[in-house]
Amino acid sequence: MATGDRVQVILECTEEPGTSRYHTTKNRKNTSDRLELKKYNPVLQKHTLHREKK
Fold first, then answer.
1. Which domain holds residue 47?
2. Is residue 15, in this structure, part of any structural domain at all?
3. pLDDT digits (tens, 9 = 90+) for 1-54
4. Are 25 and 2 in contact (CB under 8 A)?
5. Given this model, what pLDDT does residue 4 score?
6. Position 32 in a domain
7. pLDDT digit string (tens) for 1-16?
8. Is there a domain that residue 1 lies in?
């Protein structure tokens, strides 16, 4: 369970929205901007940019 300043976020693929989503946590104090990470999309079978979904 996340405690303190850590919040759960959903990362969604930017190339094919809806095909790949990841759940992770981030520290709201240290990272106030939206999170962007390169993650693997199994539908496209390659690494793509995933952004934090609102």
1. 6-53
2. yes
3. 656 889 999 999 999 999 999 999 999 999 999 999 999 999 999 999 999 998
4. yes
5. 81
6. yes
7. 656 889 999 999 999 9
8. no
Q: Which residues of 7-42 are buried (b: 16+ CB within 10 A; e: fewer)?
A: eebebbbeeeeeebeeeeebeeeeeeeeeeeeeebe
The CATH number that applies at residue 17 is 2.20.28.120
Q: How far apart are CA 2 and CA 6, in angstroms?
A: 6
* Number of structural domains in the chain: 1
What tokens were used for 28? Answer: 């709201």
Structure tokens at 6: 């850590």
25-11-28 Cα angle (round to 5): 35
C-alpha dihedral sign at 14, 26, 38, 46? negative
pTM (2 decimals)? 0.84
